[in-house]
Amino acid sequence: MVAAAVLVGVLTPGVAHAAPPSNDDFGSATVVGSLPYSVAQDTTEATRAADDPAACLGHSVTGSVWFTYTATENGLLRLKTEGSDRDLYVTTYTGERGDLKQLWNPRWDGCTTTRTVPITFPATAGTTYHFMVSGNGTPGGALQLALDRIAPVANDDFADAQPVTALPATMSQPDYTLASAETDEPAACSGNQGAPSVWYAYTPTRTQSVVLRFDNSSSGPSAGLYEGTSLADLHVLACASGYSYNGKAAGLTAGRTYFIQLTGTNDRWQSPATLRLSEALALQTSVHGPSEERPLYETIGFSLQHYNSYDAPVTTSWDFGDGTTAPPSTETGQQHRYAADGEYTVTVTSTSADGRTSSDTTVVKVKTHDVGITRFAVPASARAGDQKTITVQLANTRYLEKPTVTLYRSDNGSWEQVGRLTIEVPAHPTRKVGFPFAYTFTPEDAAIGKVTFRAVAELPWPTQDAREQDNEVIAIATTVRPAATSAAALTN
Predict the structure, then answer these.
(1) PKD domain spans which residues (predicted)?
(2) Does residue 5 form part of some domain?
C-alpha cells in the first residue's frame, strides 16, 4: 500500500512525462553502421548514469546519450555536431563499460566543447569507439551529429611532398587534424616527436641562398629545411620558429632537391601562421673606425655591423692596410696599433653561415701630434703694481702646429685665466718657441703674499696631442709684497 501511494504521487493524472532517449545509457548506445552517418535527435530528456565518465576536459555530466562505431579500416574519422542548437560536450572513448579510456593526445583530438570544432582522430580497423554527447549545463538539446571518413592532407607524407616551383613561396598553415607524423619523421626543429607535419620540396635551378621564416608570430608552428633523399638520411640546414620574424638562411645548390617540413599542433587556441620561403637578401657589412686623426701611440678600435645575417654568426677577415691581417672570426670588433704615421685603408670581407659574402672599407688617419711645455719661467718675487714677463716655452718635433697656451693664476682658490696666446710653432728637433705673457701683480696678490701660475698648451680641436701629460705645468709660487711707498722703501 505504501508503494502504491508513492507511485500515485509521482504519476499525477493528466501530466505527460517524456521518456529519455533510446541511447540514454552506454548499454543501449546507437550503433553507427556504414559511413557517412548523420542523425538528428532531441536529447533534452537525457539522464546521467551513475558510471558515466567525466566529459571533455573533466567537465561534469548532467545528461548523456551514446553512440558506438567499430572501424572497418584504418584512417581518419571526423565527428561533428555542427547544426546543433547549442554547444555540447562530445567525448571519444575506447574500452568497455567500467574501463573506458578517453581518446587523448596532446592535441585534444578526442573531445570538443563546441559545435564549431569537430573531433578528428586516426581510427584503427577493428577498434570500437564510443561517443558520449552530454549537455553543457543542461541535460542536452537538439543534436545534429555526423560521422564520416576524411582524407588526410595531400602532402602529409614525405613521399608526397608538395613541389615549390618558384620563389617567393607561401605555405599556409594546414588543418593539422588531417596530418600525422611518420615513424622516422625528424623532429630536429620542433623538438616534438610525433607532432603532425606536412612536407614541401624545392629544387633550385641555380645556386642560391634562401630564408625560411613565418610571416606572423604564433606559438605553435615550426619549420625545418632539410637536405637528403629519404627520411632516414635527412640533414637539417635551417630551423624557423613561429616566435621569430627574422627567419633562418641556408645555401642551396642548383639541381639538388631540398625538403621543407612544416610542423604544428591541433591546439584550437593556436593562431594560424604562414610560412614563407624566399631568396635571402644580400649580406651587408659595415666597418667603422675613428673619424678623427689618431696618434701613433694609440691602439685603434674597429667595429662591425652586419645586416641580413638572419641571426646567424658571420665570419670576417681583416686587412689593416699596413701589411698586417687578422684571421677570420665571428668577432664584431678588432684592435690594431700602427707602426708609423700614415693614411690606411682597412678592408673587411665577411661571409654568412649560408655562404653569402660582403666587404667594406674604412680609412683611418694616423698622425701623431706632440707638443710639450719644456720651460715655464715666472718671477720669484714681485711687488704689487709691478708688470713682469712670464714665459712658456714649447717644443714640437713632428708637424707644423698652431697651439694655444693659456695662463692661469691662483690665490689658493680657483684658477682664473689671465692670458691666452696662439702662435705657429714649426717642427724642429731642438728649437723651442716661447709664449711671452705680461702680468701686473695686484694689491690682492700682495695681501695674500703669494700667487701661483699654471700654463696649459692645447692643439686646435679635433687635433689630439699624443702625450698630453707634458701639456700642463704649475710653477713655483711667486712671492708678492706690497707696493713701495717711499724712496727709502724702494732701497729695501
Answers:
(1) 313-366
(2) no
Which of 348, 366, 384 terminates a domain? The answer is 366
Q: What angle is formed at CA 425 by the lines to CA 424 and CA 430, rounded to 5 degrees?
A: 165
Are residues 261 and 299 located together in one domain of the fold?
no
Question: CA angle at residue 325 from 322 to 327, to 5 degrees?
Answer: 175
Within 322-461, strands assigned E span: 325-329, 333-336, 342-351, 357-366, 371-377, 381-383, 387-396, 404-410, 416-422, 432-440, 450-458
Question: Residue 266's domain spans which residues?
Answer: 158-279
Looking at the structure, tell me whether residues 222 and 329 fall in a common domain.
no
pLDDT at 5: 36
CA neighbor of 117 nearest in space, from 152, 91, 155: 91
Is residue 21 within 8 Å of residue 43, measured between CB atoms? yes
- Mean pLDDT calculated for residue range 289-298: 92
Give the per-residue pLDDT at 15: 43
Q: How confident is the model at residue 56 (pLDDT cuts 50, 70, 90)?
A: confident
Q: How confident is the model over 412-418, as a mean pLDDT?
A: 88
Locate the DSSP E strands across 215-356: 222-227, 235-241, 248-252, 258-263, 274-279, 284-288, 300-307, 315-319, 325-329, 333-336, 342-351
Residues 23 and 146 in one domain: yes
CA angle, residues 222, 271, 244, in degrees to nearest 5: 45
CA distances from 282 to 22, 199, 304, 479 (A): 70, 27, 16, 73
**How far apart, in whole angstroms, are the C-alpha atoms of residue 162 and residue 153?**
11
Q: Mean per-residue pLDDT for 239-268?
A: 87
CB neighbours of residue 281 within 10 Å: 14
Mean pLDDT on 372-398:
96
Q: What is the CA radius of gyration of the chain?
A: 45
pTM of the model: 0.71
Nearest to 392 by CA among 420, 368, 414: 420
Q: Is pLDDT at 216 greater than 80 in this prediction?
A: no
CB 262 within 8 A of CB 173: yes
56 domain residue, yes or no: yes
Measured distance CA(482)–CA(384) in Å, rounded: 5
Average pLDDT over residues 256-284: 86
- Name beta bridge partners: 335: 301
Q: What is the CATH number of the domain that holds 455?
A: 2.60.40.10
Taking the C-alpha atoms of residue 164 and residue 217, their distance in angstroms, rounded to an integer, is 23
Q: How far is CA 328 from CA 89, 256, 315, 349, in A?
A: 63, 29, 6, 9
